[in-house]
Amino acid sequence: MSDRSEPNVIECHDLPNDAREDAIYRLLPKNADQAFYRERTDRNIGWITREEQEIIRGSTIGIAGCGGMGGQLAEKFLRLGIGEIRVTDSEVFDISNINRQFAATRSTIGKSKAFETARFTRAVSDDFTLVVDSRGIQENTVEPFLSGCDVVCDEIEFWAAGARILLHRHARAHKIPIFNCNTIGFGTRLFLFTHSSSTMEECLGLTYEEARDLQKKVQTKNATPEEIQHLKESVLRGLLPEFPEYCAPQHRIKNRERLFEEGKAPIVATNPPMATGFLANRILLYLLKDSSVKRDITPTPEMPAYLYFDAARMEAKVVKGKWW
After folding, report:
1. What are the residues whose beta carbons fall under 8 Å from the beta carbon of 180, sequence distance 6 or more?
2. What are phi and psi of 14, to 5 degrees?
């Protein structure tokens, strides 16, 4: 183990049991064997080429948030063969996370989502670089997290609008694309933000300062009911333009009540794996967009357009237009 020149960045091969919460751990390839990598990614070949596999191996993906989709994304990108994966999350696992989150088990309740996701991912294979930070997206962590990323996944906790806008603001300045994808009901919506697209500030109707202050008040339980309502309405209006209803009115399930009264987003256990695969496929295709292989696919549109898919209704569409 060795300290790098950057403050609080520790290079090592394995995450220590007593990992420091104020440090960034850069887990280096432990067994970087070319033959092993080639064989473990061999089943990708056919739908992609060997040359494209090397593009994937040379890519760096950042995942902000290790919850229902973030942790599974880390595992999927590892299995795909991404060369460097970065994960960050400031939360710890609770019992309710077990229904959907990659590293949530009885034994990890109360433990760091970022650290445990890193340990679970590292157990799959150790021939890649894994960067892990348990502080989440903050003003002093966002730049190290983003630096060098080819693509970033915004899987930040749904109501953390301040952290989300902060991530998007810095990524936009560095021209790093951000994919945001959610899991609602039996469907998903996928948004692509670039330096030339609509912004997350426009999407939520909040400035960074407004979102930061609202998030802090909510997290410290100092927000008024009106402020809580304003934050939730802003996030729902921006990231959930279509609220699906699958039941007749007399059997309508009270999802909105849970959202607003409990602050909990209902998530059926079967949907995050579907949404994760949908997002991971779109990012794979995005990484290969400049490949010499020309594919007949629907490109991911930039915001304010987005992709929509619902497994229950068997509906898929590209939604276009200004704010919905």
Report:
1. 153, 154, 155, 190, 191, 193, 239
2. -130, 145
Q: Both tokens of residue 82?
A: 């991404």
Give the span between the Cα atoms of 155 and 221, in whole angstroms. Answer: 23
Q: Could you give the CA distance from residue 32 to residue 158 in angstroms, rounded to a whole number?
A: 36
**Which pLDDT score, from 0 to 100, does residue 1 have?**
41
In contact, 118 and 86? CB cutoff 8 Å: no
Residue 323's pLDDT is 56
Please enumerate in sequence order all residues whose Cβ is within 8 A of that of 270, keeping only pairs 6 or more positions apart, or say none.
186
The per-residue pLDDT for range 219-247, each reduced to its tens digit, is: 898 999 899 999 989 998 999 888 888 98
**What pLDDT was estimated at residue 181?**
96
Residue spans of the chain under pLDDT 70: 1-7, 251, 322-324
Which of 72, 79, 76 shows the shortest CA–CA distance to 113?
72
Statement: the pTM of the whole predicted model exceeds 0.90: yes
| The residue count for the chain | 324
